[in-house]
Write a structure and sequence with these properties.
Radius of gyration: 18 Å
Structural class: alpha/beta
Largest sheet: 6 strands, mixed
Shape: globular
Oligomer: single chain
Number of strands: 9
Length: about 300
Amino acid sequence: MEFEIVVSHYNEDLSWLKQHNNECCIYSKGGSKNTPELPFTFTPLPNIGREGHTFLHHIVSQYDKLADVTLFVQGRIDDHVDLTLDEMKERAMSVSPGQVRTYPFRELEHFDHWGGIPWDEYPCWKRWSSMDTQKMGATPLQLFQDYIMESDRVPVAIGFAPGAIFAVRKETIHQHSKVYYQRLLERMFLGDMAHVNPETGHYMERFWLAMFNPDEYVQWTHADRAESERNKDGQLAKGHWYRTPTGSATDLGAMRRGETAESPSSPLTPLTPFTGSSVAPSSPETGLSMLTDDDMEEK
């Protein structure tokens, strides 16, 4: 199967991609001062919309020429992923139609701020709220209903992968039409939202998994909760996603247990389940890792 790595770049060192240079499609938003060095070729894009704009641009512009499997990444991933690129590719190539492959070390997280992200309640996210941000008039719920689900249903929560690093099959992307993605791109990142840090960039980071597989990543009711803590891919299952406690001074993310960079699980083997209770929304288990935030630069 054909494999491609779509890279949303600003000014990051891309040397970690050199061995897979011929499989990379790099979009650079850093301008002439931050162009990727040889041997990389790249397509320049305006510095708008964060990685969400980049990924949607690729889907729309390459809709009829998508690789069988696409791995979407930012220019730097070591603050979210603890695997080699070869390991990431191996896992990507095992993804099935309809699945979304995400990567350790961050667990899937819980999103239910349908009226808008309350930035002031999360000091750990201050870097984002303190930046020049283009506000969106519509709420996350309105966007989710009108552009993601195209339904007026109101979910309890959705699960998302911090950093928006994931792999999907062409068939998974093609479950929606090109018009669907074009409409989403225009509403989220063009026109009034064509900004270096639009609020919609943070919303789109949270929408990807639900858009591709709502059965797995949308919790419609409180009763709509998986019995097992983990799904067959080793991710936290529906209704068990990690929730950042309000008042957190540091971006405290949960690390997947039972897996390390030195001893990764097989792509087809679920990760070792938690022992004990699930991660509580307001009281994370002991042993979770303190993680650094993403780079400040737009990607």
